[in-house]
Every structure is written in C-alpha cells, then in structure tokens.
Write a structure and sequence with these properties.
Elements (H helix, E strand, L loop, with lengths): L1 E2 H9 L6 E6 L2 H15 L5 H4 E5 L5 H9 L8 E6 L15 H11 L7 E8 L9 H6 L4 E5 L4 H14 L6 H10 L4 H15 L6 H7 L4 H13 L3 H13 L4 H23 L4 H8 L3 H11 L4 H20 L4 H13 L2
Parallel strand pairs: 1-6, 2-5, 2-6, 3-4, 4-5
EC number: 2.7.7.7
Catalytic activity: DNA(n) + a 2'-deoxyribonucleoside 5'-triphosphate = DNA(n+1) + diphosphate
Organism: Clostridium acetobutylicum (strain ATCC 824 / DSM 792 / JCM 1419 / IAM 19013 / LMG 5710 / NBRC 13948 / NRRL B-527 / VKM B-1787 / 2291 / W)
Length: 343
C-alpha cells in the first residue's frame, strides 16, 4: 500500500499501474490523481472514446468487464474509473445492492485486466479516523492500493502553496503558515477557501488580515481559545467557548478528545523545550504547522509540567464518566473546565 506522495512521484516518472484501488477522506486529491493519470495515458483528442466512468452505487460487474475489455481507439490505453465504489467498504450497506457478489467478481478479474486498460476504483471514508477496509487490504500486493490520508506539516503546506500557484496567486511564507493553521485540513474546503481569498484580494497581496476577514474560526482555534482561557483561570470565558462549539453540533466526546490532544501536545512540547529542542525539530517531530507550534510554545509558558499532567488526569477521569455514567454531557464538560481552571 502506498500513499498520495508516492503515487504523485510514480505518475511524474510515468510509472503507471494497470489497476488502482484508492481510498481516503480527501476525494479532491483522488480526483486530481486520476486526472493526472488520464493526461499521462490518453491523448485529449481521443479521451471521450477511451475513457469510461461508472457510479459505484449503480455499476454491475458486466459494465466494468465490457469497458475494460474494449480495445482502445487510436490510443495505446483506455481508462475505466469507478467512483464512490462503496462496495470496497466492509460496511457497504446502502451502497451497491450486489456488493458481495461484485467484490468477488472483481477479485477474480483484476489479475486478468488487459494491459491496454487502466482500471481505477475508489471510495471515500466517512470520517478522518477511518482506516482502509479489510476488502481493500485484500487487494494489496495484487494491485496498486493507495491510501489518501491527510496531508500534514510541510506536505500540506506544499500542496496549499501549489494550489495558490495554480490560481496565479503568490503567498508569503508567513501568510502560508497562517492560512494552513486556520483552514480545515480537507482539500475540498481548501480549494474553496483559496478561491474566495483570491477573489477577495484580487491584485493585492494576501495578508494575515485578509485571511482573518474570510476564514471562519475552525475547531482547532476554538479548542486553543478554550485552553487559553483555562490557563488564565477564566472558566466563565472557557464555558462560553464550550457553548459556542456545542452549538455548532460538536459532541462532548469529540470536544474532550480535542482538549485532551491539546494537553498531550503541550506535554510533548514542554518536554522538548526542557531538552533544548528547537522549534523546527518540534514541528518535524510532532507534525505541527509552524504557526501552531509557535502558539503552543507560548501557551506552554503558562503551564507547569505538574499542571499539564494534572490536567491530563482530569481529562481521563472525565472521559470515563462520559462513557460509563449517565447524566448531562454538557454539565460534565463544564465541571471539567472549572476543575482545570482551578488547578
């Protein structure tokens, strides 16, 4: 199984495989990669005659078989794409009705896909924590399986910078760091926000102020603000932020997970600082945006090691209560905030 970066390198080198199975949360990146394979393999003049696309929720095996077996016209290759192929997911209920039979037929067929055909099938994860299904893993070693996991750190920044360049817009390094720290790590959203920012700034330079004017605060910003108020012993302000997050529909368990993660990162940064690690080393080790790392280093100054460890202990106890004891989750989160603020 390879990742997005390895696939990009292979495409650049013209190392195009016969069969691809793709999965991940970023459908935009999958579509981009498919388009790059298409451009490398088939002349645009004959694309319509050598390119077949099927909806994974409706496709029958005979459709895939006939499309793959068709001899390309005025081209060495033809390409067959099955998008939103939910039958590749273990939990394929609600997708293709014949998913069990379809997946068995495809398993038998993929070793025999003609050399003139490039078959690509992909499905999109339901959430960012989902992993490749057992069905997909069974294809590994038989075909090229690609997982499109979230781009992080410098990979994410490079991709965002490339998108700005595609739009003909320059962005400074500081502004790029800031934009990446503010925007949600989802390429569909990234493209939309970049489009809006380019239209908003037109011929002007992109600044921190222009980014602030357009981008809505994301959950990471909210959690940072919540922990910041806790560090200042302002539980009433932290509870206000909590209410705003929950009003957006974020569940108590998810909020607690993000708060706990924040303290774990602070613990790692605190240890790194005490061991004389540089900011650059911390960014690389923890896969953080440099701007976010700066903010968290400053935040760590307000917490002693003892307070961070105590905060993590309180978070773990609250997690057990949320999972095992009945009661109002919102009230339990408010109690958590008060307990963290008075340490």
């Amino acid at each position: 199984m390879i990742n997005y970066t390895e696939l990009e390198e292979n495409i650049k080198k013209n190392n195009i495989e016969n069969v691809y199975i793709m999965c991940g949360f970023n459908e935009k990146l999958m579509k981009e990669s498919i388009n790059k394979i298409l451009k490398k393999s088939i002349s645009q003049d004959f694309e319509s005659l050598n390119y077949s696309v099927f909806d994974g929720n409706e496709v029958e095996f005979e459709d895939i078989l006939n499309a793959c077996e068709t001899v390309p016209f005025m081209s060495e290759k033809r390409m067959v794409v099955v998008y939103r192929a939910g039958f590749l997911n273990d939990n394929s209920s609600g997708s293709n009705k014949n998913s069990d039979k379809l997946i068995k037929d495809i398993e038998k067929y993929v070793p025999n896909v003609p050399k003139h055909c490039i078959l690509v099938m992909y499905y999109v994860f339901d959430n960012t924590r989902e992993k490749p299904s057992y069905r997909v893993k069974k294809f590994d070693k038989k075909v090229c399986v690609v997982e499109f996991s979230k781009l992080r750190g410098m990979q994410f920044q490079k991709k965002v910078k490339d998108v700005f360049a595609e739009k003909g817009k320059q962005i400074g390094k500081t502004e790029l760091n800031y934009f990446c720290s503010r925007v949600e790590n989802n390429m569909d959203i990234v493209y939309n926000e970049i489009e809006k920012l380019c239209c908003y700034t037109l011929e002007k330079e992109i600044t921190k102020e222009s980014i602030d004017n357009l981008l809505q605060p994301n959950e990471t910003d909210d959690i940072f603000n919540l922990v910041d108020y806790i560090s200042q012993s302002k539980p009433e302000m932290a509870i206000t932020v909590l209410n705003e997050i929950m009003y957006k529909g974020v569940k108590a368990n998810s909020i607690l997970y993000m708060v706990e993660r924040q303290f774990k990162l602070m613990l790692s940064i605190k240890i790194g600082i005490e061991n004389k690690q540089s900011k650059e080393a911390l960014v690389k080790e923890l896969k953080l945006n440099p701007y976010v790392c700066d903010k968290m280093i400053n935040e760590c100054k307000r917490f002693t090691m003892k307070k961070i460890l105590k905060s993590l202990d309180i978070c773990l106890r609250t997690e057990k209560e949320l999972k095992s004891v009945s009661g109002d989750p919102k009230f339990k989160m408010e109690v958590l905030i008060i307990n963290l603020a008075i340490i």
